[in-house]
Amino acid sequence: VPSMQGSDTVRNFRPWKSKLFRHIVAVCEGMLLVFAGGLLLSGMILLMGNPPAWALVWLSNILWSVGSFCAGRRSGMHGRHHGLTDGILCGLLMGVVLFCGAVRNPLQVRLFVRLILMLICGGIGGIVGVNTKLKKSPD
């Protein structure tokens, strides 16, 4: 029966085996982490007052780097191989999101420094994710 072949394909579909889906979900998780950290940071600024500009730049760099690390780790953990390239790709995708959000001046030196940090942290996160011991398969 030809219609049974299509349903068998659907039944055996595992979304984490798809590289595109894995990277999109990992980058969304990293972006949620950056968003939550930004909310926490803005709440601290509201309560304590304005910090110096250099402190905001460093805290922003840390937020984006941690988000990129977590995205790379998630992608590497579910891919179980090619952690460095998966992590760097997640960092690059988050960098694209960052450049799209830089409305005023997207060619600032700060954004390129942040992109380099995100690529490095994403690669490290991918390596950590691949080498993480799991009790059961993430699929």
Task: Write structural notes for this entry.
The protein contains five helices and no strands. It has helices at residues 2-11, 19-48, 53-79, 83-101, 109-130. The model has no long low-confidence stretch (mean pLDDT 86).
- Content of β-strand: under 5%
Helical content band: over 70%
Order of helices and strands: HHHHH
Q: How many DSSP helices?
A: 5
In short:
This protein has 139 residues and is mostly helical. It has five helices and no strands. The model has no long low-confidence stretch (mean pLDDT 86).
Task: Note the main attributes of this structure.
139 residues
What's the SSE blueprint?
Elements: H1 2-11, H2 19-48, H3 53-79, H4 83-101, H5 109-130
